[in-house]
């Protein structure tokens, strides 16, 4: 059954009105002709399906009843769902897919149906070449340009010239990644044709029907381009009847429970890796692995394409009869990488549950990205994008799940034990609330000691009594892919990481202080960040704060009181006690101030640095993040006034 929705009906009706049945029209002409701009308007989706509604209600009731707990999929839910399939035999196995960092998705019949908890319905992809920077042409939008509707423009890396999406030279035209039987590459938008067959709209390139691949999903109703909305509709029209609608029903959930099937943790999407180039030896190893894993799935009665454990964007598959060989499936920015790892020790499923470490054995990449296989022990020639991954492959990335009230105690006690474990390494921490609260520890440059260091940290946690008592009720390890673009590019990120290490030391030192001292020193440090990164430009500091403040929230009475105390007495004895760490932070901030962010505006960059300081302080300050920024703005306004008055 093809999903019916108002968006597709409008497209079909428009095609029938202006074109003949066998016509195949260039995609850009079809979407941006004068008639299309007037009549082909993309709005929301209002699909109505009796069977779909019943299925969604069943799933909703199931989640509401079990929300917040670990859920075992049983025959009852599967059989109940099976009654509403419109006479179509469907395996309604529910699978959780983790994207990025603990954002869980629902997969039905191995097909993505859900969205991230914080997203809205209608998620679709940035389907453009990663080498091109995507910008919005706001001037055209504001001037009501007749042909462009807040359309995306591209910045050509070669010429540095800004080109409109549909008037630029072919080399600068964004490309969409499409998937069909014999096509798996980037296709220029101006080469795609639109046709109609048996009442269904289709896309074609060089005689082959295309289906857009949808990933890196975002909200459809946020002013994105006609091309993206059109592709989303095409995707929905050829997808399963239940493909997209579960989104809007689960998107308001605050927490997606952990789901298991027959005692196994359900992992990420399909176990299917398409590799173009293998050496004979690696092909042999892979086939042995594949056969072993299939036997294991049959013995356990697992649904097809189910993994065992999930680490960020890495699918981890455990072998019952070969505890030394494991496979990781990484979906990187531009291509997929299949990596086999050999642990060098026997993997005990119960003892080592929740973490994994080892050295790489070899890497196998998709054709066109890298058509060779090399060991990673010595000098290795790899694509630039792979090098970034390998640079951080020696990073310990440990997540400790605990209640928020225990976080400070854990950080203080661990910080006293870590120097004995980390003789040559430093660490920084982050507090996360997504989907539930946990602490993240990141330790760089571990090299071959990566597993040993992790094991020592976990022993320290156990020695402190946090595991037996349930204070830390879960721990996992993850792959570490730093947010380099968020922090201005690779050159600047090196200093950002050094700063995070220094800032973490400072904040851990503050955690044992009284609340009023923590608030006071936090104000000092946040003002220091602004002062150093703007080079003492008070006007720029005010603009940065105004850009991140939520003005719908009035300044609180408690914030007013803190402001009065701070202004009346700008001296605090505790500042002297932590001065060494403050000086170290200031030194790195000064170095960062001399570098310009390449991937983000300077204001956004500084906003991110401010946010991470507030994140690390956590709820030790009763002042919320927004109130803290309002407080800083008042202080800077006053200082500006005083300076002007003195002049």
UniProtKB/TrEMBL annotation:
InterPro entries according to UniProt: Lant_deHydtase_N, Thiopep_bacteriocin_synth_dom
Domain of life: Bacteria
The name this protein goes by in its record: Thiopeptide-type bacteriocin biosynthesis domain-containing protein
Domain Lantibiotic dehydratase N-terminal: 9-322
Occurrences of domain Thiopeptide-type bacteriocin biosynthesis (ranges): 396-634
Coiled coil: none
A Pfam cross-reference name: Lant_dehydr_N
Signal peptide: none
Organism listed in the record: Dolosigranulum pigrum ATCC 51524
């Amino acid at each position: 059954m093809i999903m019916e929705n108002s968006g597709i009906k409008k497209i079909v009706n428009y095609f029938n009105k202006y074109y003949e049945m066998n016509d195949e029209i260039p995609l850009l002409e079809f979407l941006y002709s004068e008639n299309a701009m007037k009549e082909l308007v993309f709005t929301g989706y209002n699909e109505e399906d009796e069977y779909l509604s019943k299925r969604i209600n069943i799933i909703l009731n199931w989640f509401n009843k079990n929300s917040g707990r670990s859920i075992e999929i049983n025959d009852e839910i599967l059989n109940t769902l099976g009654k509403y399939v419109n006479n179509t035999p469907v395996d309604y196995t529910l699978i959780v897919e983790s994207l990025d960092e603990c954002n869980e998705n629902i997969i039905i019949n191995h097909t993505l149906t859900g969205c991230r908890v914080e997203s809205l319905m209608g998620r679709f992809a940035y389907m453009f070449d990663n080498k091109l920077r995507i910008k919005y042409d706001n001037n055209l939008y504001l001037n009501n340009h007749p042909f462009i509707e807040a359309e995306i423009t591209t910045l050509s890396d070669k010429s540095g010239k800004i080109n409109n999406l549909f008037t630029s030279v072919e080399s600068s035209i964004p490309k969409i990644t499409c998937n069909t039987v014999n096509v798996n590459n980037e296709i220029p938008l101006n080469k795609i044709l639109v046709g109609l067959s048996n009442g269904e709209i289709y896309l074609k390139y060089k005689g082959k029907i295309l289906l857009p691949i949808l990933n890196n999903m975002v909200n459809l109703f946020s002013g994105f381009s006609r091309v993206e909305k059109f592709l989303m509709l095409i995707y929905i029209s050829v997808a399963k009847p239940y493909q997209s609608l579960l989104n809007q029903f689960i998107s308001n959930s605050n927490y997606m429970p952990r789901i298991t099937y027959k005692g196994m943790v359900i992992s990420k999407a399909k176990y299917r890796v398409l590799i173009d180039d293998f050496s004979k030896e690696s092909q042999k190893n892979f086939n042995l692995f594949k056969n072993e894993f299939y036997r294991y799935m049959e013995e356990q009665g697992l649904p097809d394409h189910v993994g065992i454990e999930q680490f960020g964007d890495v699918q981890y598959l455990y072998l019952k009869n070969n505890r030394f060989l494991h496979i990781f499936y990484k979906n990187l920015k531009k291509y997929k990488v299949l990596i086999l790892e050999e642990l060098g020790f026997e993997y005990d499923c119960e003892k080592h549950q929740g973490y994994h470490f080892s050295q790489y054995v070899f890497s196998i990449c998709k054709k066109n990205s890298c058509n060779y296989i090399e060991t990673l022990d010595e000098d290795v020639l790899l694509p630039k994008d792979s090098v970034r991954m390998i640079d951080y492959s020696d990073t310990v990335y440990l997540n400790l799940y605990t209640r928020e009230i225990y976080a400070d105690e854990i950080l203080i006690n661990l910080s006293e034990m870590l120097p004995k474990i980390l003789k040559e390494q430093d660490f920084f921490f982050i507090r996360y609330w997504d989907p539930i609260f946990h602490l993240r520890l990141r330790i760089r440059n571990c090299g071959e000691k990566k597993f040993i260091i992790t094991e020592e940290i976990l022993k320290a946690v156990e020695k402190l009594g946090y595991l037996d008592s349930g204070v830390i009720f879960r721990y996992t390890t993850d792959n570490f892919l730093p947010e380099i673009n968020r922090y201005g590019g690779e050159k600047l990120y090196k200093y950002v990481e050094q700063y995070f290490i220094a800032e973490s030391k400072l904040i851990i030192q503050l955690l044992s202080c009284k609340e009023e001292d923590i608030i006071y020193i936090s104000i000092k440090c946040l003002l220091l960040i602004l002062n150093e990164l703007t080079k003492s430009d008070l006007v720029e500091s005010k603009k940065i704060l105004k850009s991140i403040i939520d003005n719908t929230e009035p300044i609180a009475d408690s914030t007013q009181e803190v402001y009065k105390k701070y202004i009346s007495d700008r001296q605090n004895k505790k500042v002297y006690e932590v001065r060494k760490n403050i000086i170290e932070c200031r030194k790195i901030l000064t170095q960062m101030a001399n570098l310009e962010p390449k991937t983000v505006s300077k204001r956004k960059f500084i906003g991110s640095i401010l946010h991470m300081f507030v994140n690390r302080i956590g709820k030790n300050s009763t002042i919320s993040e927004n109130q803290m920024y309002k407080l800083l703005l008042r202080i800077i306004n006053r200082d500006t006034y005083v300076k002007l008055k003195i002049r």
